[in-house]
Design goal:
With 475 residues, the chain is of the alpha/beta class. The protein has 15 helices and 19 strands. The chain starts with 6 loop residues before the first strand and ends in a 10-residue tail after the last helix.
Length: 475
């Protein structure tokens, strides 16, 4: 998938008692810097001659323009002190993530005059945003050329991408959860009421009908078979490989039909009676294309996958896994494993389509994932409360096992284990080979869920988000 494009509204602000020419100057310098960084933004230079937010009549026009353009975030640079109530009114109406920042003020003039007082205005606007109950992201008071500026803007765009993805979730649910998996039950009505998460449930016969249609059409099934043979070791009969390919095409068609951004499938046991294969390889192929597919009808797992990929700006694929067993030699090591739904791009070896460890049907995938730094997360909830468990890990060496797997090390496995057991989490998680912990942490304030770090690093995450140079402890 291509990198996500996030368009933000750009509304630099000023206050009348400070220098208007200097405010215009700094607004224009900020525009130039954003263009240099390749940031897509909607400007307000057509609203008034200064291209600044300070007047209520203009604020109404700005809101209308930003809504029409569909901005995913709002950037309010304080080109001088700023008009805090106009900033708050605009942010409240738009209901998108807000980035609050002002350029660092220069030395006072020789006569003692100050032209901007941008930092002072930030203090005022932060308070008024709180009065309006508008969550916001604060980027430290810095110069346009400081590294904190570029990092802060790019992180904010990723936060906007997560929020945008979360507010537009529809999940294709193929079949009910397996009876034995009480842990994956979800409250469909509550997810809709609280978060606008929509499910599109279909029965297994609708899936098998789509499989038959895919085989009849033929072209895409053949292309998928050719892809599998070119990129995977196919230890599977040709007729069963055709079923894998047809299942992949069918799920893609059904996701498109229902406008779904992810799929949760009842991967056993009724499905095997219908089509004779495990769905893991088909899931893997769709995950590789950027359509998250999760197992055991785990709706919360599908939500997690969407959030994780959005945090990585859709450039990297995620893995859906079980917390499985502890490492035999490493006290802080754990096996992440599943029957084979992981995208092949994260594998450190050529994957094999084969029979999984716990079932007699073919159609699973076996491959060890790449090592290196990772983020692990799990969106979950019960009793009306929802949170996102998240933290750092790294892939390590460990014994061979079947399925798609990777051994990981965390800072304190006992602490993580207690978090998962005591809940509201379950044995499923999602991983990505990138550090997106600060992005997800910051996004949670806009999602209305609790950010639940499994390591005590909240102060470091906040320091990073505020522009400090932070080195997270290696695990």
């Amino acid at each position: 998938m291509a990198k996500a494009v996030v368009k933000i509204g750009f509304a630099p602000t000023r206050r009348s008692i400070f220098s208007a020419p200097d405010a215009v100057k700094y607004a224009n310098l900020t525009r130039d810097r954003l263009r240099e960084m390749g940031v897509e933004f909607v400007d307000i230079t057509d609203i008034n001659e200064e291209g600044l937010l300070y007047d209520d009549a203009d604020r109404i026009k700005i809101a209308e323009k930003f809504k029409k353009e569909g901005v995913a975030g709002l950037f309010i640079p304080h080109a001088n002190f700023g008009t805090e109530y106009e900033c708050a009114r605009l942010a409240k109406e738009l209901n998108v993530p807000v980035l609050l920042w002002g350029p660092r003020d220069e030395r006072p003039e020789p006569n003692g005059m100050r032209l901007r007082d941008s930092q002072c205005g930030l203090f005022a606007t932060g308070k008024v945003l709180r009065r309006f109950r508008v969550p916001f992201t604060y980027m430290t008071n810095c110069r346009l050329t400081d590294p904190e500026f570029e990092r802060g803007v790019k992180d904010f765009l990723a936060v906007c991408n997560v929020v945008r993805a979360f507010r537009n979730i529809r999940i294709l649910q193929i079949g009910p959860r397996p009876f034995d998996f009480w842990s994956t039950m979800c409250n469909e009505g509550e997810l809709l009421e609280k978060f606008n998460v929509q499910l599109a449930p279909i029965p297994l016969p609708e899936l098998t009908a789509a499989i038959d249609a895919a085989k009849k059409e033929g072209t895409r099934v053949k292309e998928t078979i050719d892809y599998c043979k070119a990129n995977m070791n196919c230890d599977i009969a040709d007729n069963l490989l055709e079923n894998v390919a047809a299942l992949k095409v069918a799920m893609r068609d059904l996701a498109d039909k229902y406008g779904a951004k992810a799929v949760a499938i009842q991967c056993w046991n009724a499905l095997q009676d219908e089509i004779g294969i495990m769905p893991c390889a088909a899931n893997s192929l769709l995950n590789e294309e950027g359509l998250p597919v999760v197992c055991e009808t785990d709706i919360h797992g599908a939500i997690t996958s969407i959030l994780m990929e959005a945090a990585g700006m859709n450039e990297k694929r995620t893995l859906f896994a079980d917390w499985t067993v502890r490492h035999p030699d490493n006290e802080n090591g754990e096996l992440l494993q599943h029957c084979g739904p992981w995208p092949i791009s994260i594998a450190k070896e050529k994957p094999t389509i084969c029979v999984p460890v716990a079932f007699d049907y073919n159609g699973a995938v076996s491959a060890e994932a790449k090592h290196g730094k990772m983020t692990l997360a799990r969106f979950d909830g019960d009793n009306g409360e929802y949170s996102l468990l998240l933290g750092h890990a790294k892939g390590i060496e460990g014994p061979y096992t079947k399925g798609t797997y990777v051994w990981v090390e965390v800072a304190n496995l006992k602490r993580l284990e207690a978090k998962v057991v005591e809940g509201p989490y379950i044995h499923h998680c999602v991983g990505i080979h990138e550090d997106v912990v600060p992005i997800l942490y910051e996004a949670c304030k806009y999602l209305g869920i609790k950010a639940d770090l499994y390591d005590p690093i909240e102060d470091k995450v906040q320091a990073y988000l505020h522009g400090e140079d932070v080195v997270f402890d290696e695990v």
